[in-house]
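Consortium newsletter contribution from the modelling node. Members have asked for a concrete example of what our holo predictions look like. Here is one, prepared for the carboxymethyl coenzyme *A complex that several groups have been discussing at recent meetings.
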Amino acid sequence: MTVQHKATLSFSDGTPSIEFPIYHGTVGPDVIDIRKLYAQTGKFTLDPGFMSTAACESKITYIDGDKGELLYRGYPIEQIAEHCDYLQTCYLLLNGELPDEAQRLDFDQRVTRHTMVHEQMARFLQGFRRDAHPMAVLVGMVGALSAFYHDSLDINNPEHRFVSAIRLIAKMPTLVAMAYKYSNGQPFMYPLNHLSYAANFMRMMFATPCEEYKPNDVLVRALDRILILHADHEQNASTSTVRLAGSSGANPFACIAAGIATLWGPAHGGANEACLVMLNDIQRMGGVEKIGEFIDQVKDKDSGVKLMGFGHRVYKNYDPRAKLMRETCHEVLGELGLHDDPLFALAMKLERIALEDEYFVKRKLYPNVDFYSGIVQKALGIPTEMFTCIFALARTVGWISQWNEMIADPDQKIGRPRQLFTGHVRRDVKPIPKASGAKK
Ligand code: CMC
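And here is the predicted structure:
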């Protein structure tokens, strides 16, 4: 962080003007450091939704929305997706560098050895209704980890922070699979150490004790790619929540539970689920024949209908993750012979039509990662209501890396936004006259 310029803020109310340092990052917009604004002027800034506010300094993930670029620790997502698996990506996000072979083996071994959860977690799970949304179960289970793993809760001890990070990365697949098995009444499957991270998760999800389960390599690779592409995405709502919760000194399991709760919202992690719901709706309306009618509804501003899985707040030319997920989508549909399945054929037709339609072209509305990841997950056999859980599983490493970075930051303070108050000024309570016969 270097200071090269200054910004001067002047006021029309007689407050003397004030100078602020401007910092350059290594890339991306400069930031004006307004930390002393209140102390020197008695004024706050107003920025709902943090449209112009950087809340922290970070070295983890960088997005250039105009270029369609996503970098993890400087490495383009395309290269990571091609050359690394999810656990290497986790190592990179957590530690800042890719592992060498010895480091990779050591990290894999540590994660693998922490995949089981305390046996009592299963009894804790039994307290939920069978029809509970799996995200409700996940928020509860991850928060409850802090009740089972007290020995790694000293947030000022880097060794404890590391152990908690490993535990979270290792146990999330087990918890997500437990939530799924609980919902369909099948027995939980214990993790199997000789399988890869993604293959182990697929087995815990889809195997039963009655027969042998052999994970399919193409499908395992697809799941691994979904995890890589969702591993981190800068200071989004759930990540900012994790940082804010952590800024009070809360333990990492509680902070990640807060992140999961935030991710649950349909404006954040719920888009791939919404995309599948939309495809099913079009299918019910009459399928491919009805695409034109549906697109007309989308273009009609009064209808309130959006093409789910299209458009992005940050990526305005294309979503680099979508390109990779599209590739995987075709690989998976080919492997499973699903290209002609009516729902998937509908998705592909919708994609083609929208990409050529002037409404979408003019507004630079391209398919985002969720358009394809919903289709891939559906093809893998993952039920729609589990999609956001898979996102949470993938994003756990991003959350914990950002949390760790925050705890180690000497400038870190408890997050405490201020407000522009427009309610009543001080007034007095007038006692309400009692009705006759009312209790004394
Ligand atoms: N369908 C139809 N019209 C759209 C869509 C859409 N999906 N997205 C944007 N538009 C229109 C919008 O109405 C506006 O039209 P006009 O200029 O005539 O008023 C124009 O395109 C520009 O949109 P914008 O205001 O720049 O878009 P935004 O930044 O406010 O919204 C978004 C971004 C992702 C919320 C929105 O595109 C959307 O709701 N998409 C569908 C939901 C979705 O797929 N979300 C997942 C995003 S990826 C998640 C992740 O990265 O984790």
